[in-house]
Amino acid sequence: MSLGDTIVAQSTPYGYGGIAVVRISGADSIKILKTISKQIKNPKSWVARKTKIYHKKDVLDETVVVCYNKPKSFTGENMVEISCHGNPFIVDGIINECIDLGARPAGPGEFTRRAFENGKIDLIQAESIANTIAASSKAGLFNAISGLGGEMSKAIKDTSKDIAELLSYCEHLLDVSDEDIQKDNKTHVSKKTSEINNSLLKLIENYDTCRVLTYGAIVVLAGKTNSGKSTLFNALVGKNRSIVNEAAGTTRDYVDANISISGVPIRLVDTAGVRRSKNMVEVEGID
Protein backbone atom coordinates (compact mmCIF):
# COMPACT_ATOMS: atom_id res chain seq x y z
CA MET A 1 0.00 0.00 0.00
CA SER A 2 1.16 3.52 -0.73
CA LEU A 3 -0.43 6.69 0.51
CA GLY A 4 -0.86 9.53 -1.96
CA ASP A 5 -2.39 7.57 -4.81
CA THR A 6 -6.11 7.05 -5.47
CA ILE A 7 -7.87 3.80 -4.60
CA VAL A 8 -11.25 2.33 -5.50
CA ALA A 9 -13.27 -0.62 -4.21
CA GLN A 10 -16.77 -1.90 -3.67
CA SER A 11 -17.79 -1.20 -0.06
CA THR A 12 -20.89 -3.38 0.01
CA PRO A 13 -20.90 -7.21 -0.12
CA TYR A 14 -20.34 -8.74 -3.54
CA GLY A 15 -23.42 -10.11 -5.30
CA TYR A 16 -26.82 -9.00 -6.51
CA GLY A 17 -28.90 -6.53 -4.51
CA GLY A 18 -30.91 -3.33 -4.61
CA ILE A 19 -27.97 -1.01 -4.00
CA ALA A 20 -24.18 -1.30 -4.12
CA VAL A 21 -21.64 1.32 -3.05
CA VAL A 22 -18.35 2.03 -4.80
CA ARG A 23 -15.89 4.12 -2.81
CA ILE A 24 -13.00 6.17 -4.22
CA SER A 25 -10.39 7.85 -2.04
CA GLY A 26 -7.34 9.92 -2.91
CA ALA A 27 -6.20 13.10 -4.59
CA ASP A 28 -7.79 12.26 -7.97
CA SER A 29 -11.11 10.88 -6.71
CA ILE A 30 -13.23 13.94 -7.52
CA LYS A 31 -11.42 14.41 -10.85
CA ILE A 32 -12.27 10.81 -11.76
CA LEU A 33 -15.93 11.37 -10.83
CA LYS A 34 -16.14 14.42 -13.09
CA THR A 35 -14.78 12.35 -15.99
CA ILE A 36 -17.04 9.30 -15.61
CA SER A 37 -20.21 11.29 -14.86
CA LYS A 38 -19.81 14.07 -17.47
CA GLN A 39 -22.69 15.87 -15.70
CA ILE A 40 -21.05 16.97 -12.46
CA LYS A 41 -18.63 19.85 -12.97
CA ASN A 42 -18.38 21.46 -9.52
CA PRO A 43 -19.53 18.92 -6.91
CA LYS A 44 -20.35 20.23 -3.45
CA SER A 45 -19.03 18.40 -0.40
CA TRP A 46 -21.54 16.31 1.58
CA VAL A 47 -24.30 16.87 -0.99
CA ALA A 48 -25.96 13.89 -2.74
CA ARG A 49 -26.30 14.27 -6.51
CA LYS A 50 -28.14 12.09 -9.01
CA THR A 51 -26.03 11.44 -12.09
CA LYS A 52 -25.36 8.94 -14.85
CA ILE A 53 -22.06 7.06 -15.01
CA TYR A 54 -20.64 6.49 -18.50
CA HIS A 55 -18.39 4.05 -20.28
CA LYS A 56 -17.26 6.14 -23.21
CA LYS A 57 -20.64 7.21 -24.70
CA ASP A 58 -22.66 4.39 -23.14
CA VAL A 59 -24.53 4.78 -19.85
CA LEU A 60 -23.37 2.25 -17.25
CA ASP A 61 -25.95 3.19 -14.65
CA GLU A 62 -27.98 5.99 -13.10
CA THR A 63 -26.51 6.62 -9.66
CA VAL A 64 -26.43 8.84 -6.59
CA VAL A 65 -23.00 10.22 -5.67
CA VAL A 66 -21.65 12.08 -2.66
CA CYS A 67 -18.31 13.90 -2.58
CA TYR A 68 -16.32 14.51 0.60
CA ASN A 69 -13.59 17.14 0.48
CA LYS A 70 -10.54 16.53 2.67
CA PRO A 71 -10.10 16.52 5.59
CA LYS A 72 -13.82 16.07 6.33
CA SER A 73 -14.07 12.50 5.11
CA PHE A 74 -13.63 9.01 6.57
CA THR A 75 -10.09 8.66 5.22
CA GLY A 76 -9.13 12.31 5.62
CA GLU A 77 -8.62 12.49 1.83
CA ASN A 78 -10.89 13.58 -1.01
CA MET A 79 -13.51 10.85 -1.26
CA VAL A 80 -16.40 9.87 -3.50
CA GLU A 81 -19.14 7.35 -2.77
CA ILE A 82 -21.19 6.11 -5.73
CA SER A 83 -24.48 4.37 -4.94
CA CYS A 84 -25.44 2.29 -7.96
CA HIS A 85 -27.75 -0.65 -8.64
CA GLY A 86 -26.45 -3.84 -7.04
CA ASN A 87 -25.52 -5.72 -10.17
CA PRO A 88 -21.93 -7.06 -10.25
CA PHE A 89 -21.57 -6.08 -13.93
CA ILE A 90 -22.47 -2.47 -13.11
CA VAL A 91 -20.15 -2.39 -10.08
CA ASP A 92 -17.25 -3.93 -12.01
CA GLY A 93 -17.85 -1.52 -14.87
CA ILE A 94 -17.65 1.55 -12.58
CA ILE A 95 -14.54 0.22 -10.84
CA ASN A 96 -12.84 -0.51 -14.18
CA GLU A 97 -13.62 3.02 -15.40
CA CYS A 98 -11.94 4.41 -12.27
CA ILE A 99 -8.91 2.17 -12.77
CA ASP A 100 -8.61 3.25 -16.40
CA LEU A 101 -8.45 6.85 -15.15
CA GLY A 102 -5.58 6.20 -12.73
CA ALA A 103 -7.07 4.67 -9.59
CA ARG A 104 -5.96 1.29 -8.35
CA PRO A 105 -7.90 -1.46 -6.53
CA ALA A 106 -7.81 -0.92 -2.77
CA GLY A 107 -6.17 -3.56 -0.61
CA PRO A 108 -8.02 -5.25 2.28
CA GLY A 109 -8.82 -2.67 4.96
CA GLU A 110 -6.97 0.09 3.09
CA PHE A 111 -9.68 2.73 3.56
CA THR A 112 -9.56 2.13 7.32
CA ARG A 113 -5.75 2.17 7.26
CA ARG A 114 -5.77 5.54 5.52
CA ALA A 115 -8.23 6.85 8.09
CA PHE A 116 -5.80 5.77 10.83
CA GLU A 117 -2.67 7.12 9.14
CA ASN A 118 -4.39 10.45 8.49
CA GLY A 119 -5.37 10.75 12.16
CA LYS A 120 -9.12 10.29 11.68
CA ILE A 121 -9.32 7.25 13.96
CA ASP A 122 -7.01 5.42 16.37
CA LEU A 123 -6.13 1.72 16.41
CA ILE A 124 -8.92 0.83 18.84
CA GLN A 125 -11.50 2.54 16.64
CA ALA A 126 -10.05 0.75 13.60
CA GLU A 127 -10.46 -2.59 15.37
CA SER A 128 -13.99 -1.57 16.40
CA ILE A 129 -14.93 -1.16 12.73
CA ALA A 130 -14.00 -4.81 12.13
CA ASN A 131 -15.86 -5.83 15.30
CA THR A 132 -18.96 -3.92 14.20
CA ILE A 133 -19.00 -5.92 10.97
CA ALA A 134 -18.20 -9.26 12.66
CA ALA A 135 -20.45 -8.89 15.73
CA SER A 136 -22.56 -12.03 16.18
CA SER A 137 -24.94 -10.59 18.80
CA LYS A 138 -26.70 -7.33 19.66
CA ALA A 139 -24.60 -6.98 22.80
CA GLY A 140 -21.43 -7.42 20.74
CA LEU A 141 -22.66 -4.85 18.24
CA PHE A 142 -23.34 -2.28 20.97
CA ASN A 143 -19.87 -2.86 22.44
CA ALA A 144 -18.24 -2.43 19.05
CA ILE A 145 -20.12 0.81 18.36
CA SER A 146 -19.09 2.06 21.80
CA GLY A 147 -15.45 1.40 20.87
CA LEU A 148 -15.95 3.12 17.52
CA GLY A 149 -17.23 6.18 19.37
CA GLY A 150 -13.94 6.44 21.25
CA GLU A 151 -15.02 5.45 24.79
CA MET A 152 -12.37 2.74 25.13
CA SER A 153 -9.72 5.02 23.63
CA LYS A 154 -10.56 7.75 26.14
CA ALA A 155 -10.34 5.31 29.06
CA ILE A 156 -6.90 4.13 27.92
CA LYS A 157 -5.66 7.70 27.37
CA ASP A 158 -6.89 8.74 30.83
CA THR A 159 -5.10 5.80 32.45
CA SER A 160 -1.93 6.52 30.47
CA LYS A 161 -2.06 10.15 31.64
CA ASP A 162 -2.44 9.03 35.27
CA ILE A 163 0.60 6.76 34.94
CA ALA A 164 2.71 9.56 33.41
CA GLU A 165 1.70 11.99 36.17
CA LEU A 166 2.51 9.46 38.90
CA LEU A 167 5.91 8.73 37.34
CA SER A 168 6.62 12.45 37.15
CA TYR A 169 5.65 12.87 40.80
CA CYS A 170 7.95 10.01 41.88
CA GLU A 171 10.88 11.31 39.81
CA HIS A 172 10.46 14.76 41.36
CA LEU A 173 10.57 13.25 44.84
CA LEU A 174 13.67 11.19 44.08
CA ASP A 175 15.72 13.50 41.86
CA VAL A 176 14.59 17.11 42.36
CA SER A 177 13.13 17.70 45.78
CA ASP A 178 15.57 18.53 48.59
CA GLU A 179 13.12 17.37 51.23
CA ASP A 180 13.02 13.85 52.63
CA ILE A 181 10.22 11.61 51.44
CA GLN A 182 7.35 11.96 53.89
CA LYS A 183 4.60 9.57 54.91
CA ASP A 184 2.08 11.66 52.96
CA ASN A 185 4.14 11.19 49.81
CA LYS A 186 4.14 7.42 50.25
CA THR A 187 0.38 7.42 50.93
CA HIS A 188 -0.28 9.44 47.78
CA VAL A 189 1.86 7.11 45.62
CA SER A 190 0.20 4.02 47.12
CA LYS A 191 -3.30 5.43 46.58
CA LYS A 192 -2.63 6.45 42.95
CA THR A 193 -0.96 3.10 42.19
CA SER A 194 -4.03 1.28 43.51
CA GLU A 195 -6.36 3.46 41.43
CA ILE A 196 -4.32 2.86 38.27
CA ASN A 197 -4.23 -0.88 38.94
CA ASN A 198 -8.03 -0.95 39.30
CA SER A 199 -8.41 0.99 36.05
CA LEU A 200 -6.15 -1.47 34.22
CA LEU A 201 -8.02 -4.48 35.62
CA LYS A 202 -11.30 -2.93 34.48
CA LEU A 203 -9.90 -2.37 30.97
CA ILE A 204 -8.73 -6.00 30.79
CA GLU A 205 -12.13 -7.21 31.99
CA ASN A 206 -13.90 -5.03 29.43
CA TYR A 207 -11.66 -6.36 26.66
CA ASP A 208 -12.42 -9.98 27.56
CA THR A 209 -16.14 -9.22 27.76
CA CYS A 210 -16.13 -7.44 24.39
CA ARG A 211 -14.23 -10.29 22.76
CA VAL A 212 -16.78 -12.87 23.95
CA LEU A 213 -19.76 -10.70 23.02
CA THR A 214 -18.35 -10.04 19.55
CA TYR A 215 -16.96 -13.44 18.56
CA GLY A 216 -18.86 -15.69 20.99
CA ALA A 217 -17.71 -18.36 23.42
CA ILE A 218 -17.06 -22.07 23.08
CA VAL A 219 -18.54 -24.14 25.91
CA VAL A 220 -17.57 -27.82 26.07
CA LEU A 221 -19.60 -30.29 28.12
CA ALA A 222 -17.10 -32.85 29.39
CA GLY A 223 -17.19 -35.46 32.16
CA LYS A 224 -17.81 -39.07 33.01
CA THR A 225 -20.23 -41.28 31.09
CA ASN A 226 -23.92 -41.12 32.07
CA SER A 227 -23.41 -37.83 33.93
CA GLY A 228 -26.16 -36.07 31.93
CA LYS A 229 -24.06 -34.14 29.42
CA SER A 230 -26.23 -35.01 26.42
CA THR A 231 -29.45 -34.34 28.37
CA LEU A 232 -28.14 -30.91 29.36
CA PHE A 233 -26.97 -30.30 25.78
CA ASN A 234 -30.44 -31.07 24.37
CA ALA A 235 -32.13 -28.92 27.02
CA LEU A 236 -29.93 -25.92 26.20
CA VAL A 237 -30.28 -26.38 22.44
CA GLY A 238 -34.05 -26.81 22.72
CA LYS A 239 -34.24 -30.00 20.66
CA ASN A 240 -32.85 -33.52 20.63
CA ARG A 241 -29.52 -33.19 18.87
CA SER A 242 -27.62 -35.76 20.96
CA ILE A 243 -28.79 -39.33 21.50
CA VAL A 244 -29.67 -39.99 25.15
CA ASN A 245 -29.60 -43.55 26.46
CA GLU A 246 -28.96 -45.32 29.77
CA ALA A 247 -26.16 -47.32 28.15
CA ALA A 248 -22.77 -45.81 28.93
CA GLY A 249 -20.74 -44.62 25.95
CA THR A 250 -23.73 -43.65 23.77
CA THR A 251 -22.05 -40.42 22.62
CA ARG A 252 -18.95 -41.43 20.66
CA ASP A 253 -18.20 -38.26 18.71
CA TYR A 254 -18.69 -34.61 19.55
CA VAL A 255 -21.95 -32.88 18.62
CA ASP A 256 -22.11 -29.08 18.46
CA ALA A 257 -24.77 -26.39 18.09
CA ASN A 258 -24.89 -22.60 18.08
CA ILE A 259 -27.10 -21.05 20.75
CA SER A 260 -27.53 -17.65 22.42
CA ILE A 261 -27.81 -17.08 26.16
CA SER A 262 -28.63 -13.54 27.36
CA GLY A 263 -27.48 -12.19 24.01
CA VAL A 264 -24.12 -13.98 24.12
CA PRO A 265 -23.44 -16.27 21.11
CA ILE A 266 -22.21 -19.68 22.25
CA ARG A 267 -20.97 -22.72 20.40
CA LEU A 268 -22.04 -25.58 22.66
CA VAL A 269 -20.17 -28.89 22.29
CA ASP A 270 -21.32 -32.26 23.67
CA THR A 271 -18.46 -34.75 24.00
CA ALA A 272 -18.04 -38.48 24.62
CA GLY A 273 -17.97 -39.49 28.29
CA VAL A 274 -14.54 -40.08 29.77
CA ARG A 275 -13.96 -43.68 30.86
CA ARG A 276 -11.75 -46.65 30.11
CA SER A 277 -13.24 -48.63 27.24
CA LYS A 278 -12.29 -51.60 25.07
CA ASN A 279 -14.46 -50.35 22.23
CA MET A 280 -12.04 -48.77 19.76
CA VAL A 281 -14.74 -46.50 18.24
CA GLU A 282 -15.59 -45.09 21.68
CA VAL A 283 -11.90 -44.69 22.56
CA GLU A 284 -11.33 -42.68 19.39
CA GLY A 285 -14.32 -40.47 20.22
CA ILE A 286 -12.96 -39.80 23.72
CA ASP A 287 -9.50 -38.97 22.36
TrEMBL record:
Instruction: Show the GO cellular component annotation of the record.
Output: cytoplasm
Domain MnmE helical residue range list? 123-217
What's one Pfam family the UniProt record gives for this protein? Answer: TrmE_N
Read off the InterPro entries from this record.
GTP-bd, GTP-bd_TrmE_N, GTPase_MnmE, MnmE_dom2, MnmE_helical, P-loop_NTPase, Small_GTP-bd, TrmE/GcvT-like
Which molecular function terms from Gene Ontology are attached?
A: GTP binding; GTPase activity
* Residue intervals of the GTP-binding protein TrmE N-terminal domain: 6-120
Q: Does the keyword tRNA processing apply?
A: yes
According to the entry, every stretch annotated as the G domain falls at 219-275
Q: Does the keyword Aminoacyl-tRNA synthetase apply?
A: no
Question: What keyword terms does UniProt attach to this protein?
Answer: GTP-binding, Nucleotide-binding, tRNA processing
Name the Gene Ontology biological process terms. Answer: tRNA methylation; tRNA wobble uridine modification
Identify its protein family: Belongs to the TRAFAC class TrmE-Era-EngA-EngB-Septin-like GTPase superfamily. TrmE GTPase family.
**This protein's name:** TrmE-type G domain-containing protein
Organism whose genome encodes this protein: marine metagenome
